[in-house]
Design a protein that fits this description.
Elements: H1 4-40, E1 48-53, E2 63-73, E3 76-88, E4 94-98, E5 109-111, E6 116-119, E7 124-126, E8 132-134, E9 143-149, E10 152-160
Antiparallel strand pairs: 1-10, 2-3, 3-4, 4-9, 5-6, 6-7, 7-8, 9-10
This protein binds FE2/S2 (inorganic) cluster.
Length: 164
């Protein structure tokens, strides 16, 4: 009988602590999961980029295509802009080149008057299939692996380096 008030007090303390712990867990665990989930998330971007119907690209004329790809790696989010040129030789043959100059990385553009890609930074020139033909670029433009499915053109990332 003498211990009864103390036991009641202990019981109330224990009950309050249990309820507090439960509320803490209900709020804390989802918060921790939310904060940690980006670090557990796998990268979901595909390496295959759709460029649309092949027939959209005229034969013999390099046609520019741009896209942005976002990579998620934990909390880090990186966006990369890609520029490329689609060159159709005939109905079925197509090659796709990067617009990044192989000298110091400036973006080349197609100049139909001279039939060259020209890098504006140091006047590097490339022919229609990306071969370096004058100026400082040490090797051809990088090229993308292509695939055609149901008349649609796709490229695979990243582009591959071609030797000089
Ligand atoms: S960056 Fe293209 S020629 Fe220098």
């Amino acid at each position: 009988m003498k211990n009864s008030p103390l036991n009641r007090r202990d019981f109330i303390k224990g009950t309050v602590a249990a309820i507090g712990g439960l509320i803490g867990a209900l709020i804390g665990i989802p918060s921790i999961v939310y904060l940690l989930s980006p670090s557990l998330r796998a990268e979901e971007d595909s390496d295959s980029i759709a460029l649309g119907p092949l027939e959209n690209y005229p034969i013999g004329v390099p046609t520019r295509f741009d896209f942005t790809r976002t990579k998620v790696n934990g909390w880090e989010r990186t966006s990369v802009n890609y520029g490329l040129f689609v060159v159709r030789k005939n109905e079925n043959e197509v090659r796709v080149f990067s617009d990044i100059c192989t000298h110091l990385g400036c973006r080349v553009s197609w100049h139909p008057d001279v039939q060259h890609y020209i890098s504006p930074c140091h006047d590097g020139h490339f022919d229609i299939v990306g071969n370096n033909i004058s100026g400082p670029p040490p090797r051809p433009l990088d090229e993308f692996v292509t695939k055609i499915e149901n008349g649609n053109l796709f490229v695979l990332l990243p582009p591959f380096k071609r030797s000089a």
